[in-house]
Write a structure and sequence with these properties.
The complex is a heterodimer.
Chain A (H helix, E strand, L loop, with lengths): L11 H8 L4 E2 L2 H35 L3 H29 L4 H5 L2 E5 L8 H16 L17 H6 L1 E5 L11 H45 L5 H12 L8 H10 L5 H13 L4 H11 L3 H11 L6 H8 L14 H15 L11 H11 L4 H7 L7 H17 L3 H11 L5 H19 L3 H15 L10 H14 L6 H10 L2 H14 L3 H12 L4 E3 L6 E3 L4 H13 L2 H13 L9 H13 L9 H16 L3 H10 L8 H13 L3 H9 L11 H9 L3 H4 L19 H14 L1
Antiparallel strand pairs in A: 1-3, 2-3, 4-5
Helix pairs in contact in A: 2-3, 3-5, 8-9, 9-10, 9-15, 10-11, 11-12, 11-13, 12-13, 16-17, 17-18, 17-19, 19-20, 19-21, 20-21, 21-22, 22-23, 23-24, 24-26, 26-28, 27-29, 28-29, 30-31, 30-34, 31-34
Chain B lengths: L1 E3 L11 H33 L1 H22 L19 H11 L3 H13 L1 H9 L7 H20 L1 H5 L10 H4 L7 H22 L1 H23 L10 H12 L5 E7 L7 E7 L3 H15 L9 H17 L6 H9 L4 H7 L1
Antiparallel strand pairs in B: 1-2, 2-3
Helix pairs in contact in B: 1-6, 1-9, 1-10, 2-3, 2-4, 2-6, 3-4, 9-10, 9-11, 10-11, 10-13, 11-12, 11-13, 12-13
The chains are: A mainly alpha, B mainly alpha.
Chain lengths: 730, 346
């Protein structure tokens, strides 16, 4: 037996086994098993030697000092190696065997004398044995290849491992042993080569990126390098008002030069360093869209609800301020939303003493509400050259708004090359959107949209995390480029980068393009919170589908979270979807009109796509004799009525019949520059409050009137009304 | 590769005290399991809440800097109830605190975990009313901390274990019968049975009773003396089991049966008679290396309790000598078990 029971009576054969000494070379399996047995004692000893270095490695990893951690691991391995060498050297020099070998009756002896080897030889043997281990044990394969079973370490030390069990003496290597050795050797060499290749590749990568990695490790978890750089230059620039580091970071955040994570780090540092806490809380309120963000908003607004900081913080969490109760009707919800929007849409004025971050916020988020004031506010140059190009794109946006198109184009052409790739993409998308809004799908729009669409199709990383406006502009650009049928791959890419609402909008619009009208309508209606309608049969009147409370509230939530851009665009698409051949549902038209009125559309909007869709709805309202809705919508689309003189006439007739003669005259006769309708709120309000019978008297257009109403001649009665209006104005 | 066989698992009538101890451990675990599972899951959830752990770490860093300021005579003096004057952190923890203050989230996380185990800091955290810093985060942290405290009050490991919060005389013994999970219980009970039945057979039930409880007590003492009381409770019969291992390892040169498995070939596995001291490298040296390698305040295993228990067991082996003839009984009872390997040699 290999491992004896010392209490068992010894048999004759065993006695002769024990007395025999150094009979011959030990078998490879015995030698392997002996080493494994040694590990029972050796491994714990190695672990103790490695312990201080392991502790150091963990400590270094905790401090994210990877170099120190690697060094500690290397030291631990060296310590283990030394213990291994010491173990072999001491025991072999002292006893000629180790506990594991002793169990298997093995001894290491000098090749020539057959006695215990000399200490120096033993040391060299131990060293080369462990080196063989480091070389994946490949040198050990020689035990399968020579008679005396002496691998490298035995040859270095002139030793041979012998067994005292006569039956366990290894014979000449068999063919299968030779084959096994060769196979192991080949596999090992292949592994070693690939390992060496991998390591060299890794090292060369490390060498080339050493500069950036050190920077990254320094920056990770610490303050942002971009902010440091701009803050430093900002502070040293002559004539520039002094700004705190966080104020610089906020400005850069609103100018999209740093991301939310960076701003959070900066704010975190400020808050825990007990510095300017209001700005710190503001930074966290704007960079965290979650529940905690709202808590930070409340903190900002705790002292002064009218402050700039509070306004900015609130504008990032508008919906959460709605105090909705169970059982609120859709009208109540909308009312609450509108009053909140009115409050949020009146920001504290931008003055000379306002902080730069507030100016940047107003430019980025409020440019659409007052272009002239925005342009005025931008007369002071950007505080840092890094922000110059961003400010220029804002200026261009205002110029578009004011109709100074060529100036905007010149500004963008000049500044685009200076922009960083991501901002350049954003500016290109905005340019594309502006051209589309201005003239629809023309040559200018096609040219402007080509570059951002190309970036998108090439899956460039700059075209990521698109906001709703950008998704809409890019989709419209693609519609324009591809004759109304954007490719599925492009839509898929857009969907990936879009918000969940924008994704739904994309699904609906694409379904419409592909002819699935039912899906398209259903999706858009869900998005707008309109009660879905389902046609029972072709041509029949649509009936509202019974909807659960949960579904209703889900729709309401979605509508409340909808961005204004997506809301208007969805309304435009839904209005486009009105089937000219089918008689519209009055309730449906009413709801759609209400949504148009609630969408807060600027009466001076120049977006031809949106206004065309609005006019389309207006036509349907006129057809259906929905006088009150038609007049309300006409107010919203007043400027665009110039494009359809016929519709203008119809509405003038409607208002005349509703005893709003003044209004009718203004609509019909005044030139656009003189017209006051848009601002004559009182007249419109009077009209809204007009008695209901006024509606019924407006039977100018027959119910089954077709879509080609513009071409339809006026009836003699209508002509008479028109003449009367003209006469009265003289 | 090797595993003690000793006398195998002797049945109840041969080792009643060991079996009784095992029954008590399993019984307590089964009884407290529902409460344990519920509280553990919730605590785990809390500890995985990165905001909570980060804020906790950051407050710990602030408390440490206050202590440093006070030691240098900077900053205002606080009453002991509101300051962390009693914190004595390790150098690496101070480095972590420095990094956390500079905004390193990884350092904050590590520090948060260390702080959850720092009994003194936990006391301060629960009582101190005002902290400088991000008040919104601190408010959320305070709510989570209150939840943690409630959960800990219900958690069996905290109710039975030995911690900074609960270290009355009873806790020094009750911690030995509480376990922090099924696997923890399984291994402890397996070794308790192996070594307990062996010791009980040789030295009697009284010896097992005394060695386990006194060994457990000594383990806890060693742990507290070296690492101090932690906010994370000390639980498990490991120290008591280590005491039993200490008793058996004390036989030193006497050979005991072990099961071994070296290679998957006949003759390279079976039963071997090896000197008792082999238990030291197999069971006790890993504890020693684990202790030397562990970061203060982070290690999940109380290595020092194992070592203290083993030392106490070794000393107690002189108090409870082995009855004569016990060892020859063992030799006789297991002679046949080596037959499998003898067949190979024949």
């Amino acid at each position: 037996m290999v491992i004896e029971n010392p209490y068992e009576p010894k048999s004759a054969s065993k006695a002769s086994d024990a007395s025999a000494s150094a009979l011959g070379a030990a078998s490879p399996l015995d030698r392997l098993a002996a080493h494994i047995a040694d590990l029972v004692i050796l491994l714990p000893l190695m672990a103790i030697a490695m312990a201080p270095f392991r502790r150091e490695a963990v400590s270094a990893r905790m401090s994210q000092d990877l170099a120190a951690s690697d060094l500690a691991v290397l030291n631990a391995l060296i310590a283990a190696f030394m213990v291994g060498v010491l173990w072999e050297t001491l025991l072999l020099a002292w006893k000629g065997t180790t506990p594991g070998r002793a169990i298997f009756g093995l001894r290491v002896v000098d090749l020539w004398s057959g006695k215990r080897p000399r200490p120096l030889n033993v040391f060299l043997r131990a060293l080369s044995w462990w080196l063989s281990v480091v070389c994946l044990g490949l040198p050990f394969m020689a035990v399968f290849a020579n008679d005396k079973r002496r691998p490298l370490h035995d040859r270095v030390a002139d030793t041979v491992v012998v067994t005292r069990h006569a039956r366990r003496v290894a014979a000449h290597p068999t063919t299968s042993e030779l084959a096994f050795g060769a196979m192991f050797m080949t596999a090992g060499l292949v592994m070693l080569t690939s390992l060496a290749l991998m390591l060299s590749q890794k090292w060369s990568q490390k060498a080339t990126t050493s500069g950036t990695t050190s920077l990254a490790s320094e920056a990770s978890g610490m303050l942002c390098d971009e902010v440091s750089q701009v803050h430093e230059e900002w502070r040293s620039a002559p004539g520039q008002p002094q700004a705190s580091r966080l104020s610089v970071a906020l400005t850069m955040f609103f100018a999209s030069r740093v991301d939310a994570t960076c701003l959070q780090r900066e704010a975190d540092h400020v808050l825990w360093s007990k510095e300017d806490s209001t700005l710190g809380y503001l930074a966290l309120a704007v960079s965290r869209p979650d529940l905690d963000g709202r808590k930070y908003r409340d903190k900002v607004c705790a002292d002064d609800r009218g402050s700039e900081a509070c306004f900015v913080a609130r504008s990032f969490h508008p919906v959460s301020e709605l105090n909705l109760r169970d059982g609120d009707s859709a009208e109540e919800t909308l009312g609450a939303l509108q009053s909140l929007m009115t409050e949020v849409e009146s920001p504290p004025p931008l003055s000379a003493s306002s902080a730069e971050w507030y100016r940047a916020f107003r430019m980025e988020r409020w440019w659409k509400s007052d272009a002239e004031a925005g342009l005025m506010a931008l007369t002071t140059p950007a505080p840092h050259r890094d922000l110059d190009a961003t400010y220029a794109t804002w200026r261009a946006q205002f110029l578009w708004q004011l109709g100074r198109d060529s100036e905007a184009r010149a500004m963008l052409s000049e500044k685009l090359p200076l922009l960083y790739p991501r901002e350049k993409f954003r500016a290109q998308v905005a340019w594309c959107g502006a051209e589309l809004a201005l003239q629809g799908c023309g040559a200018e729009a096609k040219r402007a949209c080509a570059a951002p669409l190309e970036s998108l199709e090439r899956n460039e990383p700059i075209a990521q995390f698109l906001n709703d406006r950008q998704v809409i502009d890019l989709y419209r650009g693609a519609e324009c480029q591809d004759q109304g049928r954007p490719s599925a791959s492009l839509v898929a890419r857009l969907s990936r980068e879009a918000s969940s609402e924008a994704r739904r909008w994309l699904t609906a619009t694409q379904a419409w393009r592909e002819g699935d009208r039912k899906l398209a309508r259903a999706e858009i209606e869900k998005l707008l919170g309109v009660v879905p309608v389902e046609p029972t049969e072709v041509g029949a009147r649509e009936k509202p589908v019974a909807e659960s409370d949960a579904a209703k509230s889900a729709h309401a939530d979605m509508f409340l979270n909808l961005s204004p851009e997506l809301q208007v665009e969805s309304l435009a698409r839904l209005s486009e979807m009105l089937d000219p051949q089918q008689e519209p549902d009055r309730k449906q038209l009413k709801l759609l009109t209400d949504r148009w009125l609630g969408a807060g559309l600027d009466p001076r909007t120049r977006d031809v796509h949106v206004t065309d869709a609005g006019l389309r709805l207006l036509r349907r309202l006129v057809q259906s004799q929905e006088a009150r809705s038609a007049l309300d919508l006409a107010k919203v689309l007043e400027e665009s009525l110039d494009r359809t003189p016929y519709l203008r006439e119809r509405i003038a007739i409607m208002s005349y019949k509703a005893s709003q003669r003044e209004l009718a005259r203004e609509l019909l006769l005044a030139r656009p520059s003189q017209r006051q309708v848009g601002r004559n709120r009182q007249a419109w309000e009077n009209l809204r409050r007009a008695p209901a019978q006024a509606d019924t008297s407006l039977s100018v257009v027959p119910r089954s009137h077709s879509e080609s109403m513009d071409a339809e001649p006026l009836t003699p009665a209508e002509v008479r009304v028109l003449q009367e209006i003209r006469r009265s104005s003289r | 590769m090797i595993f003690p066989l000793l006398r195998g698992l002797l049945w109840f009538h041969r080792a009643p005290m060991t079996w009784l101890l095992v029954a008590v451990n399993i019984g307590v675990f089964a009884w407290t399991y529902p409460a344990y599972e519920m509280a553990d899951e919730n605590i785990q959830e809390l500890v995985e809440d990165s905001d909570f752990v980060h804020t906790h770490g950051m407050l710990y860093a602030m408390a440490l800097s206050e202590v440093a300021d006070q030691q240098q005579g900077v900053g205002e003096a606080r009453t002991p109830a509101t300051a962390t004057q009693v914190l004595h952190p390790h150098r690496s923890v101070l480095q972590l605190a420095e990094r956390a203050r500079r905004g390193d989230p990884v350092a904050r996380r590590y520090l948060g975990i260390i702080a959850l185990r720092d009994g003194e800091f936990m006391k301060v955290a629960k009582t101190r009313l005002t902290w400088p810093g991000d008040q919104v985060a601190i408010e959320a942290w305070r709510e989570q901390l209150a939840r943690l405290v409630t959960l800990q009050e219900r958690h069996p490991s905290f109710r039975l274990g030995l911690s900074a919060e609960r270290h009355g005389p009873l806790a020094w013994f009750s911690y030995q019968i509480a376990h922090s999970g099924g696997l923890h219980l399984f291994w402890n009970m397996l070794f308790l049975l192996l070594f307990g039945t062996f010791v009980e057979n040789g030295r009697g039930s009284r010896a097992v009773f005394c060695i386990t409880w006194v060994g457990g007590l000594a383990g806890a003492l060693a742990y507290v003396a070296i690492s101090g009381l932690s906010a994370s409770p000390l639980v498990g019969a490991s120290a008591a089991v280590s005491a039993l291992i200490g008793v058996v390892a004390g036989h030193f040169r006497r050979r005991l049966p072990f099961v071994y498995w070296l290679l998957p070939f006949r003759g390279y596995y079976g039963v071997a008679w090896l000197p008792a001291w082999i238990l030291v490298p197999v069971f006790l040296l890993p504890d020693l290396s684990g202790w030397l390698a562990s970061q203060p305040g982070i290690s999940q295993v109380a290595y020092t309790a194992h070592l203290g228990g083993a030392l106490a067991g070794y000393l107690l082996s002189f108090v409870f000598p082995e009855r004569s003839g016990a060892y020859s009984e063992l030799a006789e009872s297991l002679t046949g078990t080596a037959a499998s390997s003898s067949r190979w040699a024949a």
